[in-house]
Write a structure and sequence with these properties.
mainly beta, 25-stranded mixed β-sheet, five-stranded mixed β-sheet, 4 helices
Length: 754
């Protein structure tokens, strides 16, 4: 059984403490090195200005302003104004980048102790592209300069799509699918079953996965203050460590402007069933409201508060949801070189116990094992901070501490399982500009997770006989990484990096993994950039996967303390190009090979018990294509995404009847047409038949074809929106067998900002 937990906890605490001392020493050394550079007002210069829209005098907010060849950057405020301090005297080239506008640049001469002026007017771009991102390189970079496939969802698209939670937007991102609620990038995930996400989801560069299960909860992400969502595709563990096996989703929020602002919204919706499948005579609807307020505090501070209340019957019997969501954010000097930002998100939710359908003739009614009164209660608390303590032309030191806490209590006839989990972590990044075309980033991360639960155990406990007994497993993680980016020639650049991760769990051996990456970018013209990359990815098993011990829906699940992490090699060749100001395209061919994929399987030793095991070697290859174009300015814009997947279970012989990986579709298509600046729109989704499933392979399954219509119009300063989803009333299985897709529904919302 190994040593007592108290002894292990003591050893792990000493291990984490030593790692923390090392990280602090590195950070202190970095700060000392950077402090040797002069940064007084007399030794450096300042540049300031205002960004406006061409043809008018209105300021443009949230424009990224980058000083070429340095680490200095900022964003414009609500008036379009900006100020950058700490420039070396001489010539400075500024780049101005924002979604919806053509990029611009200005070269100014700056003198020590003086402020130079650089105003610019940006021309509108008919196709909304993201010119700058932070996720792919860990720092603000132009999209075409990074050897990674990226997609960006701007705030305007989230608003136009009229969704309640962010997962309503993600299926329209190129290369992304949702499989029964599990987010999947390029076929990496299949169905995760609520644990062990292979996509790392972050909020302002802080991990946002549940502490015990590595689960994504899009309902715990407030929408009004999102500036954009950045998606990086392919293995990215060389920079972000565990869970970035298939890619990264980073939700970036807007800085807080000192001007007071209210946003108030209301929503009402419901579902309409096919007559032959109607599960109840009562109306199934949803209702909710939200309010957000922000204002400046003091000279440089700002506070934003958000509250959302939502109640939904769901579209299935026992599929109801009752939610409170609260967020607070404080910014200090968000437009300076030394910003500080702190946030806290709290969610409390009750969810019904629907798991699978009763039978094909009653798809919206739960299985007989589920009582209509079954529900689970969960709470989540996510907090994080971004603290830039050092910012010069050639160096920046950034701390990103975070805390994730979640608790769940089942109120089921079958069980009363509960668990509490908390994860704390401290990522640290130090970036150096070595000359005008060479950048080095060093960093580390320390995480620790604690769990208290009555459905986690270790052999030979197997299943806890008394649900009042609890077990306290934990994990510790340490990661160290380095990344080097430099220009090989005028049109060529390269990125090389690696990360070393150590993962330790209660009663299990420490697993150490090394994840390198290499990428190159070639600019064949001003409008076209080619990229190639290869990288290794990693995901440590979640505590639930390793130690779960319970009975769910009549099936007994036992722990596996010997469970190891998943690994992958991912390679791609891609191109992004602007054929014209009104037509953009990105395409990539990719290939990923996975080892030790974790999934449920029969436990060894006979009997009908299940556990999570390292099951598969697998390969996923394909094509990821996306194009956007505009017709007659913004009268009509279109985006078409296509992803082709070829998957194979490498543990099965080549002549086996079906070697396809479960829950992946060969062909995936989305089409979005926006009219009149997005006030009206048509959304189309198509997924070919899932080639393979796990539990019920004989169940019928087919293609999925969905059509949504939406319209919006401002009335007296209030945006009124109506969305009808699944207009054609497609009756389908939502990827995972015996899970019905949503029938036709409508959502009416009203939002006012003042």
């Amino acid at each position: 059984m190994g040593e007592p937990w108290a002894g292990r906890r003591g050893r792990r605490a000493r291990w984490v403490s030593r790692a923390a001392l090392v990280a602090c020493a590195v950070a202190a050394a970095a700060a000392t090195g950077g402090a040797q550079r002069p940064d007084s007002a007399a030794a450096t210069a300042t540049v300031a200005g205002r960004v406006t829209a061409a043809g008018g005098d209105s300021g443009v907010a949230d424009v990224a302003v980058l000083v070429s060849g340095t680490l200095l950057h900022t964003v414009t405020d609500a008036k379009g104004e900006y100020r950058i301090r700490g420039l070396a005297p001489g010539e400075a080239t500024l780049r101005f980048l924002r979604i919806g506008f053509e990029a611009a640049s200005r070269t100014v001469t700056v003198r020590a102790g003086e402020t130079a002026r650089a105003d610019v007017a940006l021309a509108p771009a008919p196709v909304l592209l993201a010119p700058v991102t932070v996720t792919a390189s860990g720092f603000a970079r132009q999209v075409g300069d990074v050897p990674a496939s990226q997609a960006v969802v701007p705030h305007s698209e989230i608003t136009n799509r009229n969704v309640v939670t962010l997962d309503g937007v993600m299926p329209f991102v190129a290369g992304v699918t949702l499989n029964a609620g599990s987010i999947d990038i390029r076929g990496s995930s299949g169905v995760a079953g609520g644990v062990g996400s292979r996509v790392l989801v972050m909020l302002d560069s802080h991990p946002l996965l549940s502490a015990d299960g590595g689960e994504v909860d899009f309902a715990a992400l407030p929408l009004p203050d999102i500036d954009r969502v950045e998606v990086v595709k392919g293995a990215y563990s060389a920079l972000y460590g565990s869970n970035a096996l298939g890619g990264v989703v980073n939700v970036i929020t807007t800085p807080i402007d000192p001007k007071p602002e209210w946003t108030v919204g209301m929503r009402y919706g419901g579902w309409q069933y096919p007559s032959e499948y109607k599960p109840t005579t009562s109306a199934q609807d949803l209702i909710g409201g939200q309010v957000q307020y922000s204002q400046g505090i003091g000279q440089d501070g700002g506070l934003r508060l958000f509250l959302d209340r939502g109640v939904s019957d769901g579209y299935t019997v026992a599929g109801e949801a009752n939610r409170w969501l609260f967020k607070a954010k404080y910014d200090l000097a968000p437009y300076s070189q030394h910003p500080v930002s702190v946030y806290a998100v709290y969610a409390s939710e009750d969810n019904g116990g629907f798991f699978t359908w009763k039978d094909p003739e009653h798809p919206y009614e739960p299985d007989s094992n589920v009582s209509p009164s079954d529900y689970s209660h969960s709470t989540k608390l996510s907090t994080g901070a971004r603290i830039v303590t050092l910012a010069h032309e050639t160096s920046q030191l950034e701390f990103l501490p975070f805390l994730e806490y979640n608790t769940t209590k089942n109120h089921f006839a079958e069980n009363q399982d509960f668990h509490d989990a908390m994860k704390v972590g401290l990522p640290v990044d130090y970036t150096m500009q070595v000359g005008r075309t060479h950048r080095v980033t060093l960093g580390g991360e320390i995480d620790h997770t604690w769990v208290t639960s009555n459905f986690l155990a270790r052999p030979p406990d197997s299943v806890l006989a008394d649900s009042s007994l609890t077990y306290h497993p934990g994990t510790g993680d340490l990661g160290l990484f380095a990344q080097d980016e430099w220009a090989l020639a005028t049109d060529w650049s390269a990125t090389v990096g690696a990360r070393l991760d150590a993962h330790s769990a209660t009663g299990s051996p420490t697993e150490v993994t090394f994840n390198p990456k290499l990428g190159v970018v070639y600019h064949s013209s001003r409008r076209t950039a080619w990229r190639a990359s290869i990288a290794r990815g990693y995901r440590a098993p979640s505590i639930i996967e390793q130690f779960v011990s319970t009975v769910q829906y009549g099936q007994r699940v036992v722990p596996n303390p010997d469970l190891m992490g998943e690994h992958a090699w991912s390679a791609e060749l891609g191109v992004t190009t602007n054929f014209a100001s009104w037509w953009w395209m990105d395409a990539a061919i990719f290939d990923s090979e996975y080892e030790g994929l974790i999934g449920p399987s029969l436990a060894p030793g006979g009997g009908f018990e299940f556990q999570f095991r390292n099951l598969q070697r697998a390969r996923v290859s394909g094509l990821d294509l996306s194009t956007k174009f505009a017709v007659a300015g913004d009268v009509m814009t279109m985006q078409v995404n296509y992803m082709y997947l070829y998957t194979r279970d490498l543990d099965l012989p080549a002549n086996f009847p079906n070697t396809w990986l479960p829950y992946r579709s060969r062909n995936n298509v989305t089409v979005t047409a926006n009219f009149i600046g997005g006030l009206m729109g048509v959304d189309f989704r198509y997924r070919s038949r899932v080639e393979q499933v796990v539990a019920y392979p004989l169940d019928p399954r087919g293609d999925i074809t969905l059509l949504d219509l939406r319209a919006g119009y401002p009335v007296l300063g209030t945006l009124l929106q109506l969305k009808v989803s699944n207009v054609l009333q497609e009756h389908y299985v939502d990827v995972q067998e015996r899970v019905p897709g949503a029938p036709r529904s409508f959502l009416l919302s009203a939002t006012k900002t003042f």
